[in-house]
Every structure is written in C-alpha cells, then in structure tokens.
Amino acid sequence: MRLAKTRSLASEWVAKGKVKLNMENVKPSKDVKIGDTLQISKNTATFSYKIIGMTDRRLGAPLVKECIIDTTPVEEVERFKVYQAAQSSYRQYGEGKPSKKDRRNLDDFLENWE
Asked: What is the pTM of this model?
C-alpha cells in the first residue's frame, strides 16, 4: 500500500518486528483484512493506519487514500518531525567529514591540478 518506499524495505521492517497488525507482530505471509489496524514503527514514532479497502495489485500513491485511513496521533507525527530535524542538523553541506561524492570530487580536482 505504498507505506514503504520499496517492497524489500517493507519486508525488512516485518523481519525486524517494526510492523504490527492489530497490536501483534506479523510474518510476511499474514493475511490482512478490511478493518484491521496496521502499526509501523519508524525511528522514534509509531504510525497507525486502518485498512478500509483491498486491492489485488500495487496502487499509485494518490490512490492509496482510498484503501487506508491514517489514524496516527498528532503527537507521533510531531515526534517524527523532530527526529528528522535533528538528523538534518548533524552535518550541513561542506561541513564535517566529506561524503563519498565530496571525496571523489576532491580526488578529481587534485589529479587535474598538475
């Protein structure tokens, strides 16, 4: 239902126990029914969704709203936003240890210097 960016990421979440269906840990083969509540833990917050429709294929992002309702409390959304803001403040571009791309650019520059 497009709650994870990729299918492999979704199965990784299930394997790590970050996904709960009706307050219980699930396995990848667990059947989901209309009316079930899905909880996904991301970093410091837990997002909740109620399933109101089913489909036999993967939907585009705008159509997901027809199949699920976001029941996440406002406090959890705020907690996730605070976490994201804290993560982005660790290293601004050009500060701290160079990234792999920065290092490659520096190596290219120094090679062509002579």
From this structure: 0.70
